[in-house]
Specification:
With 118 residues, the protein is mainly alpha-helical. It contains four helices and no strands. The chain has one domain. The chain is elongated. The relative contact order is 0.21.
């Protein structure tokens, strides 16, 4: 599976779990459905961006660091809009990016050229 598709799928799946972590914050339980939907979209965006990066740079440490940075960068505006819960929002977002960065570098394949001959 190519790196971008792997990032998209894994980012979406992990985004669901990222959103479900809001259940542990009692103030956020009323809006859990919107939070899960938003986190899923955020995970998909992060997965695509990280997949493109992993396609260009073939380095596990760089992929992990970039994934963590993207996850934190996408989570920060959400936390900033709340003016609280920075740790509760940014930790799962950063973990999504870190895991997707690792997975795309380790398990993602590079696209094959259609006309390439061995």
């Amino acid at each position: 599976m190519n790196k971008i598709l792997l990032g998209l799928i894994l980012g979406g799946i992990l985004g669901v779990f990222d959103g479900l972590t809001a259940w542990f914050t009692p103030d956020a339980r009323a809006g859990i459905v919107g939070i899960v939907i938003g986190s899923t979209i955020k995970g998909i965006i992060a997965g695509i961006v990280i997949g493109f990066f992993s396609r260009k740079f073939h380095s596990l440490p760089l992929g992990i660091a970039f994934g963590l940075a993207v996850g934190l960068l996408l989570a920060f505006p959400i936390a900033y809009m709340q003016h609280k819960y920075y740790f509760e929002i940014m930790l799962p977002g950063g973990m999504v990016g870190l895991i997707v960065g690792y997975a795309t570098q380790t398990y993602g394949g590079n696209p094959q050229l259609a006309n390439a001959r061995s």
